[in-house]
Design a protein that fits this description.
globular; 12% strand; 141 residues; binds zinc ion; Endonuclease, Chain A; single chain; 40% helix
Length: 141
């Protein structure tokens, strides 16, 4: 059962977001905060020290930069034209690491939601994704 926000709730959330935050993790953190979710940042003891963790829900939200994590099929990702082999190897290592950490988190019983930097622009969609993943907000907690 998934509770979606009403359009009114959603615009209330969006109006509380501070536009000055431009870093991807900060965008998502302000959004979650405005939505009323409480979370831990870079929590120790969770594989990869994820950006955002919800210990009681046992869920993790991680934000991947499209460049460093080589987002496949992404309009904003371009393979660098010089030192291409170096970059290809680097991206392959990053992807391997991402997959390994995600597997470790799953094994330890955490659900993982990966958000890409390019997905953060569509706020209504982002809010829906977060609510779908996290489940309804418990009021007064
Ligand atoms: Zn992307």
């Amino acid at each position: 059962m998934v509770d979606s926000l009403t359009p009114e709730q959603r615009s209330a959330v969006m109006s509380r977001i501070r536009r000055a935050d431009t870093k991807p993790e900060l965008i998502v953190r302000s959004l979650l905060h405005a939505m009323g979710y409480r979370f831990r940042v870079q929590m120790k003891g969770v594989p990869g020290r994820p950006d955002i963790a919800f210990p009681r829900r046992r869920k993790i939200v991680q934000i991947h930069g499209c460049f460093w994590h080589a987002h496949e099929g992404c309009a904003t990702f371009r393979m660098p034209k010089s030192r291409t082999e170096f970059w290809q190897a680097k991206f392959a290592r990053n992807k391997e690491r991402d997959a390994r950490l995600e597997q470790m988190a799953h094994t330890a019983g955490w659900d993982v939601l990966t958000l890409w930097e390019c997905e953060l622009k569509d706020e209504p969609l982002l809010i829906d994704k977060l609510v779908d993943f996290l489940g309804p907000l418990k009021v007064n907690t």
